[in-house]
Amino acid sequence: MKQPRKRRSQKAGLPPGSLVHIGEVRTQQPSLSIMDYGAGGCVEAELPDVDALRRHPRQHEVLWVNVYGVHDPLMLGEIGRIFDLHPLVVEDILNTDQRQKVESYGTYLYLVLHRYRFNGGGQGRQLAQDQISVVIGRDFVLTFQECKAETFETVRERVRTDRGGLRRGGVDTLGYSLLDAMVDSYFGIVEELNDRADGLEDQILAGARSASLQGIHELKRCLSRLRRNLYPLREVLGSLHRDVGDFFRPEVQLYLRDVYDHTVHILESIEDLRDLTTGLLDVYLTTVSHRVNLEVRALTVVATVFLPASLIAGIFGMNFKEMPWLELPQGFYYALVLMVLVAGGMLLLFWRRRSV
């Protein structure tokens, strides 16, 4: 069952640094894993608890600790004490309603990142967001994720196989790799939204339906949410390159600049999709208006064709004693033929003028 969401109002009146989880519980049982690696090798293990992390003997230059599940204040508080994290950092990790940001605490950096995914199946899949907190120290990296995901699996595989020399790169290379994997995951989201926009366009051109309008509004909502949350990411990457560049070697800063360019490209794609979605709404409204105009024109033609018949029937329905065809046995049929001839003539005239 879905757990109730804990809101910020629950922290009202508490002192700064109070460890209270804010958000939804996405993982019932938190899990802890490490990758202890360096140029000499790699040790990977799943740890049963925080005490095992405290007792773990460091064997290599870099320690990567990953935590799935951020709703346990006791566990996160203990990890904070092991790595000497500021209480405000642990408080922000527990609060999953943060904007994307980077903060420097002297000996380490704290980053808040967002991961996006689609829940459900078909065209009605909903965009969901998870918060990922990253702490980059001088010889360690901590990642805190709300639930299990494959976002960083490619980075883990590179560490295991030493592909690209990641083991010899240090914590700054690992931090860059995590950011790069996060930004690359956005391309899949944008591509799926682009496919959804193309499908809506085909659907609207085939015939506007109310489901198309609902799909347009859902697409606009997803794009607005992405745009609102990705602009802070651009600021984060700019700060990493400009304000806290001492955490990254010059050769790694070049790669950070490349990640920044990818983020700008994603934002431009989102802006293009927003313009396309606005155009889809205009096309939908134009299509509906055109269809209404066609129906009104058809009804107008029908009403115009039968108007002379109503006029003739009204004339012959007047209470006069002396009227043409009134005394003739075939008078009724003459009136019907006259109605048909007038209606046929009007239809021919409309056809010649391409009104029908």
Brief overview:
The chain is 54% helix and 15% strand. It has helices at 50-55, 73-82, 87-94, 153-161, 171-206, 210-242, 250-316, 331-352; strands spanning 31-38, 41-47, 62-68, 101-104, 109-119, 126-136, 140-145.
> Can you give the mean pLDDT?
85
Q: Round the Cα radius of gyration to an integer and report it.
A: 34 Å
Largest sheet: 7 strands, mixed
Backbone shape: rod-shaped
Name the poorly predicted regions. Answer: none
Q: Roughly what fraction of the amino acids lie in strands? A: 15-25%
Number of helices: 8
Count every beta strand, where a strand is a DSSP E run of 2 or more residues. Answer: 7
- Derived structural class: alpha+beta
How would you describe this structure to a colleague?
By secondary structure, this protein is α+β, with helices and mostly antiparallel strands. 54% of the residues lie in helices and 15% in strands. It has eight helices and seven strands; from the N terminus they run ββαβααββββααααα. It has helices spanning 50-55, 73-82, 87-94, 153-161, 171-206, 210-242, 250-316, 331-352, and strands at 31-38, 41-47, 62-68, 101-104, 109-119, 126-136, 140-145. Strands 2-1-3-7-6-5-4 form a seven-stranded mixed beta sheet, with helices on both faces. Helix 5 (171-206) packs parallel to helix 7 and helix 7 (250-316) packs antiparallel against helix 8 (331-352). It is rod-shaped and about 120 Å long. The model has no long low-confidence stretch (mean pLDDT 85).
